Amino acid sequence: MILAAGRGERMRPLTDTCPKPLLKVGEKALIEHHITRLVNAGLTDIVINHAWLGEQIEQALGDGSRYGATIAYSREAQALETGGGIYQALPLLGNAPFWIINGDVWSDYPIEKFKNFSLQGLAHLILVDNPEHHPQGDFYLNQSTVSTSGEPRLTFSGIACYHPDLFKNCQQGRFSIVPLLLNAMTQHQVTGEHYHGQWLDIGTPERLAQLNQALSTK
Q: For residue 62, what are the domain limits?
């Protein structure tokens, strides 16, 4: 599932008329890079949620056939945040563990690892070094177990594998996934890994420009 329902407030004015996932990175929309990488890794069943200007996303991507994918859409009248958005999409995702990618991150994480991954617990988080704009980090990684206490802390990349049971006590509505993860951590049900490769949170026009500049010099 690619999370694409955010308003992109920090990206304004770029996102006033264009949903953030359709902003261009190089010659393609940001979300197209995700789709292409997933398909190249053999992952062709994709769910995308959307809210703000979501019809533009559906018009741009269609049913996914041009990419070799099958895309199903979870439409939100208003953005339901990470937890609420995933919960609403569960009927499209099935009963098995599924991978999530935030639509506004850029990474060369080897997503071919998704295919044969065996989830131990309720969630598996890909963690990265803390960027300049988030120096305090999010979680502590002790070998393969993620928790809230301990140093050094790492930043959650927005790439994760979740078991549907993580959401079993939830109800329809707008809510963050963070409390669900924190509760699962108290039960030692969250694993993780520290990824040292390329990762960028494209949350502002400046970081989008930074990424485009870096790609243009390659």
A: 2-216
- Cis, bond preceding 152 (omega within 30 deg of 0): yes
| Nearest alpha carbon to residue 69 among 90, 42, 87 | 42
Cα separation, 181 vs 178, whole angstroms: 5
Separation in Å, CA 118 to CA 28, 88, 182 = 32, 24, 21
Q: Which of 26, 91, 98, 35 is nearest to 61 (CA)?
A: 35
Number of domains in the chain: 1
CATH number for the domain that contains residue 75: 3.90.550.10
CA distances from 123 to 68, 106, 192 (A): 28, 21, 8
Residues 127 and 143 sit within 8 Å (Cβ to Cβ): no
Q: For 103-152, how does the pLDDT look when each residue is reduced to its tens digit (9 = 90+)?
A: 888 899 999 989 889 999 999 999 999 988 889 999 999 999 999 989 89
